Task: structure prediction
Amino acid sequence: MRHSEHHLPAGSAAHGPYALDIGPGSAGWGYSALRVLELAPGARHDFATGDSEWIVLPLAGACTVTADGARFALHGRESVFAGVSDFAYLPRDAAAGVSSTAGGRFALLGARCERRLPARRGPASDVPVELRGSGNCSRQVNNFAAADVFGADRLIAVEVLTPGGNWSSYPPHKHDEWDPGRESELEEIYYFEIAPHRGEDGRTTEGLGYQRVTSSGTGRHTEVLAEVRTGDAVIVPDGWHGPSMAVPGHTMYYLNVMAGPGAEREWLIRDHPDHAWIRGSWQQTPMDPRLPLCTAPPSDPAGPPETAGSPGGPGVQAGALPGAESGSDAEPNQEVPR
Result:
């Protein structure tokens, strides 16, 4: 797949120990960063957090994270499709480390920031799992570091799971200019993993999906129509982004990482005026019965993270943002399209 300014196929943005390394310097923006770290069994990676806050999020496997003299054992998960993971928050200006007895793949989500907040662990049991949309716009959102869920200075992050054949990040929406109370200015990174299909004959077919971004008339006038596969990333400095399209038979996962210059850490979006009407149709269409694909555990696991985490437990919200009544209509400028 051809490398472009905004679509980064797997391996094209590798650097040093990272299978993917996107930061303000390479993206040409001010705040958002994402690294994907692959650790062999027994390996350890040390790094300085510098002028950014970071979250260590297991994609596959368990790990131990250290920072500021604290140690956090993360139980992780078998894969991004198997369950909701715990995670660790690391402050700026800290010496940090990630190690894994069994090895695994770990996302490091970053944002340049000013405040230095304490290092801490986010339990998987505290992650609100939300079902959004309906019909073939149904998707699952794991709001582990949403703006009104987990405290940070600038970093905002969520995970989205879209069943095969469905569209998410729809209607197309944007957050590329500051409009108080209506729209935030946020840079965004999409990181993708696509579930393979394993046939009865034992054959495995790798999955794919599609991502669209269209110009909003501001900034870089970003335009993207990309075929995305596991390990790919799309950077969105501006523009209407969506839909994210999962092909039939292959569940799509993406990790959204956002940050921006706003005085308030908030996630306000503006829908594309040509497509916003679709939200009004969702009340007449049932949620995709395949959802939820996984749920948060009912309680924090006890003991060391000997193996990756597994799905199970309650805690699914249908169609509601955290803090809203379940099933209620969202306000026009709340984040709902993911």
Summary: Residues 306-314, 319-336 have pLDDT under 50 and may be disordered. The two ends are 25 Å apart (CA to CA). DSSP finds one helix and 27 strands in the chain.
